Amino acid sequence: MTKANIKQAISCAKNEFSIWLIDARMLLLSVLLIFDYSFAIKPLQLNSEIMGKPLNILEPFIALANNGLLLLFLPLLFLTLIADYPRADANNIFNIVRIGRVNWLIGQMIKLFFMAASYIIFVIIGTIAPMIGNGRLTNHWSEVVTKFTLFHPEESQNPGVRLLPENLYNQLSVYQAAILSYTFLFMYLLIIGLILLFFSLIRKKTAGFIVCGALISVGTVLCSIKSKMMWTMPMAHSIIWLHYTKYFKQPVVSLHISAIYLITVIVLLIISCFAVIRRFSFENLI
């Protein structure tokens, strides 16, 4: 088996990542922008107008990664965008064989890192850009988030209020919530991609897609009903506010435990991919 050559692996990742960026499915990102504005930005802006107070620029961005419905949409769209991962066709099989199994596999993992990171960056830009000039950037939550129901109790169930629960703003600063939310979401996306990669290597690509869809769907349902079983799913570990109660600092589940859980799953999937690559034939991808 070919020895690892990082230079070849990175070159492979760059070439395939550039092809992914110009794929027609990237047009679906426009749906993400509309979704972000409709379900994360607009409800908070409406509450800001009602209260006559500015939002923190990062609040819609944080809301997007902590609301059940929104966090169902984000991984499902990512899964759609990488549905053919890992890509291989008759035109590039020769190059794949030339660099070897190991380098190709490492390249695919680097490509996955690029895809997940660029997706997160797009979400960041798409959520923060509409807020520029309409909010402020500090490490403190706005009064729109923390005191809206105090001044407008009749609006306590409106969509903007439910986006950022007390479990989040009573326990973490804005910067902490933003960094942790998207770090954990990033690891969640890596898990989805690695599952697709593993199932492709064992010639069960369709099954891999189904497993990813089921993982996202079941995780969403368990989180929505607050079942203890939700902690068996990556989704629960990627939603920061679920780790806390509304008022007490002692977490329900430590963020350290969730980090260990997500990293362990990622490492096990990587090891599994390397374990099966020895018996893998590239023609199986076509």
Describe this structure in words.
The chain contains 14 helices and two strands. The protein has 286 residues and is mostly helical. The chain has a two-stranded parallel sheet. The chain is elongated, with a radius of gyration of 21 Å.
**Separation of termini?**
21 Å
**Overall shape:** elongated
Average residue pLDDT: 88
Low-pLDDT stretches: none
User: Helices and strands, in N-to-C order?
Assistant: HHEHHHHEHHHHHHHH
What's the multimeric state? single chain
Number of strands: 2
The level of helicity is: 55-70%
Determine the strand fraction and express it as a percent band.
Answer: under 5%
What features would you highlight for this structure?
286 residues; mainly alpha; two-stranded parallel sheet; 14 helices; 2 strands; 1% strand
Topology readout:
Layout lengths: L5 H16 L7 H23 L3 E2 L2 H6 L3 H14 L11 H7 L1 H28 L6 E2 L6 H4 L1 H4 L7 H5 L2 H4 L4 H28 L3 H20 L9 H5 L16 H23 L9
Parallel strand pairs: 1-2
Helix pairs in contact: 1-6, 2-6, 4-12, 6-11, 6-14, 11-12, 11-14
Short description:
This protein is mainly α and 286 residues long.
